[in-house]
Amino acid sequence: MTESGGLTVLHLTQPADGGVGRIVEGLVRAQVMAGMRVAVACPSDGPLAPAAARHGARVHPWRAVRAPGPLLVKETAHVRELVRGLRPDVLHAHSAKAGLAGRLAVRGRIPTVFQPHAWSFEAVEGPVAAFARRWERHAARWSDRVICVSDAERRRGERSGIVARWAVVRNGIDLDHYRPGPADRARASLAPLRDLPPGTPLVLCVGRLCRQKGQDVLLRAWATVAPHVPDARLVLVGDGPDHGALRTAARPSVIFAGEAEDTAPWYRAADVVVLPSRWEGMALAPLEAMACGRPVVVTDTDGARESLPPGHETHCLVEREEPGALAAAVLRLLRDPALRDTLGREAQGHASAVYDVRHTADAVANLYRELLGGPQADCRERTSR
After folding, report:
1. Distance, CA of 299 to CA of 326 (rounded, Å)
2. Does 384 have pLDDT greater than 60?
3. Residue 354 and residue 245: Cα distance in Å, rounded?
4. Strand 166-168 with 383-384, pairing
5. Angstrom distance (rounded) from CA 64 to CA 105
6. Which of 113, 115, 159, 358 is the most exposed place for a label (fewest CB within 10 A)?
7. Distance between terminal CA atoms of the chain?
8. pLDDT tens-digit readout, 143-170
9. Alpha-carbon torsion 80, 86, 90, 94, what sign?
10. Distance between CA 178 and CA 172 in Å, rounded?
11. Contact indicator for 344, 294 with CB cutoff of 8 Å
């Protein structure tokens, strides 16, 4: 198949929420609009399934859990059945679990793209991490392309001994949706913020409440920030397995807002956005925040340094698991409105120039065509080797 309208792609993903879910949704929307036949296999309890259906994709519930285990045999068999019935031209597997089941099911019999969205072996330690590395080295032979979302993510894979046909396609966001807007109007639209006094300093963290995203480190940093800016509030948007422990450890000035169907108003409501992750490929939340004109403070995970505008590392990049450094960066921005405004304007311009989801979709479509031997479109961002 060489034309977009004749190409069928199956996106296989677990998880179906958070940044991965939003990335897959963006690809699905763009690919349907380009005339591709798009199918999505994912757990039905996340927001991706209904969103993909709204965009015109065929959605197939895939009962897969996040972690590998005894259910893997059934999960892999289900993928095999889906591939047999759908006969896709390309299987695009997202994140570790889908990469595991999808590549076991297909074993290179159809063009297969694997996108780790951060390497699985970063999430574990000891023998489990060693096994995950061995698996990724082995499974690379069943990946026609491995898409990384940052050069740092690709380099980490290479340093771990993975020999693959690499492509680097940076994450993109919907710039029509994530755009600057008045903070006071955004705060008035969000129930947890409506009773705050006008001008309350607001620090925001958007992400699944789990070890990866590092909200526990942020709470330790907030214990230093709060006494210096006693009227400030820290808002955690998201839910996850660490919710209970985080709430127990939190100060009264921390607001747990829960899941948000639309995160754009939250970014507009914030003065500073923070993502203190322990590992990433290239996190989506900072890109969304920058597109809304907000300065971000991020930890130096894969893709973080690449995602920032030139020169922002001085103010916006800190070492992982260093609550003191994180607190100092947040305090500096809270105390300096002029610096916040400058960084926010520069961040918005950088996001608009570099992280348009249409660039990402063009790059992925060209990669599919390359695998299938068809002509490539003129796209605005694509790096591969």
Report:
1. 8
2. no
3. 37
4. antiparallel
5. 14
6. 159
7. 23
8. 999 999 999 999 999 999 999 999 999 9
9. negative
10. 11
11. yes
**Cα-based distances in Å from 231 to 116, 134, 199, 249, 332:** 40, 50, 10, 19, 16
Residue 382 reports pLDDT greater than 60: no
Per DSSP, what are the bridge partners of residue 206? Answer: 237
Q: Quickly count: other Cβ atoms within 10 Å of residue 338's Cβ.
A: 7
- Compute and round to an integer the Cα radius of gyration of the chain: 21
Q: Which residues, in sequence order, are CB contacts of 294 under 8 Å at separation 6+?
A: 204, 267, 268, 270, 271, 272, 273, 344, 347
Q: Alpha-carbon distance 9 to 82, whole Å?
A: 12
Give the Cα separation of 114 and 134 in Å (integer).
16
For residue range 181-201, list pLDDT tens digits in order.
999 999 999 999 999 999 999
Find tokens 């591939």 and name the residue.
83
Pull the structure tokens for residue 209.
């409440």
State pLDDT tens for residues 89-138: 999 999 999 999 999 999 999 999 999 999 999 988 899 999 999 999 99
Burial (CB count within 10 angstroms: exposed 0-12, middle 13-18, buried 19+), residue 182: exposed
Q: How far is CA 26 from the centre of its chain?
A: 11
